[in-house]
Amino acid sequence: MPRSTTALATDLFQTSPYLTRVTPGAEPPVVYLTDTLAPAHPEGEPAPTDAAFGIVGLDQQIIWQADPDILELLRACACGPRAAAELATLFGAGRVAAAVAREWLQAPEELCRAYRLVSGEIEVTAHCNWGCPFCPVATDPKPRRTMPMDLFEEVVAKLNAVGTIDYVTFQFFNEPTLDKYFTDRVKVLAEHGMQLALYSNVSALTQDKIDALKRYGVLRHLIVNMPSVDERDFAELTGSRSYARTTANIRAAIDAGLRVQVVVNGVGERLARNLDDVTRRYQPLGVEVFPSLTCDRAGDVSGAYAHGVRVAGRLTGCGWPVHHANFSVAGDLFLCCNDYYQREVFGNIRDDSIDELMTSDAAACLRRRVFGVAEAPKDFLCRRCHNQTPDFPGRDFRPIATFG
């Protein structure tokens, strides 16, 4: 959520790294990959004829500007703090005040404290019954653990209080339908009026779970990992012999009228072949089929799925730490969906409200590293992540400092 504590009398200002510049008439340089729904772009009124540029912030709305000197002001402070008096002399006190009022300029200590959550990613179980080669579980599975119901209820209640959450998920490199409390959790979501994006291999999506999803009406959509419709290939790609059960459960979910999407994981020619086969099997049944954006989870997956990313210098932003709250099975908040070992923890939901945790010094410190305000350590998770590569098609932030 927006944070507005910057005092006009502060001695120093720096441009928020959350801001992206938009050029009238050109495609925005950012895109929002919302779940497995269609990619979205910044929204706003059409550019007026006198627009010199637009600015997009956390709310993903374009604010058009006719005064090009505002952009020069933001550029001047993009890479580091500048004295307020100096900025007023160079660009005019009115421009500085206007930029501060919009929180485009902030006191350095306020940078990266703001957030705008759209999802809560809840690790309800810490185990999976498959061992897919594109997942760290295949080589380093975690011990079996389950989030207690009282902890889950606290997470959901505090997420609901945020007011901007579109949906929650039950997954983090696990299989949520193995959860003995699955139906109870669905009921809790219904009580809070929250939607569930259920990522699952559906091998344990029994009829009673399907009935619960129908009865409580919380399902946003069911996203099924189905890497192949060939039984032998399926077994190789999942490390599982659950083909018959999985395909039967997919059909049961379709027959129940659930909104089902199938994602096909893989790389190269094998992915292309399997995507074609899965599409021909399920698209006639009204199912959306997509190839998955398979990645190596910041270096934790090797072999054919490894990307070998090594990002030097200051990092350039990512939506995960500001748009999604990730909760471990123990209630810890950690950096993002690619942090398999949950290395970057910045608090526990038992200790405070989500707002206090998301605006804490620990959270702001992590986001300053992600957005290049501070230099990230050489072993920092994001240095190995494809989200930080300049040509990644799903860039949802392009800080003004990166435009040159």
Written account of the structure:
With 404 residues, the chain is α/β, with parallel strands linked by helices. Helix content is 29%, strand content 14%. It contains twelve helices and 15 strands. The strands form four sheets. A five-stranded mixed beta sheet has the order 8-7-13-14-15. Strand 9 (196-200), helix 6 (207-216) and strand 10 (219-225) form a beta-alpha-beta unit. Helix 2 (84-91) packs across helix 3 and helix 5 (182-192) packs parallel to helix 6 (207-216). It is globular, with a radius of gyration of 22 Å. The relative contact order is 0.14. Residues 2-8 have low confidence and may be disordered.
Briefly, what is this?
By secondary structure, the chain is an alpha/beta fold. It has 12 helices and 15 strands.
Topology:
Layout: E1 12-15, E2 20-22, E3 53-56, E4 62-65, H1 68-76, E5 82-83, H2 84-91, H3 93-101, E6 105-106, E7 119-122, H4 149-162, E8 167-169, H5 182-192, E9 196-200, H6 207-216, E10 219-225, H7 231-238, H8 243-255, E11 260-264, H9 268-282, E12 288-291, H10 320-323, E13 324-327, E14 332-334, E15 345-348, H11 354-358, H12 361-370
Parallel strand pairs: 7-8, 7-13, 9-10, 10-11, 11-12
Antiparallel strand pairs: 1-5, 1-6, 2-3, 3-4, 13-14, 14-15
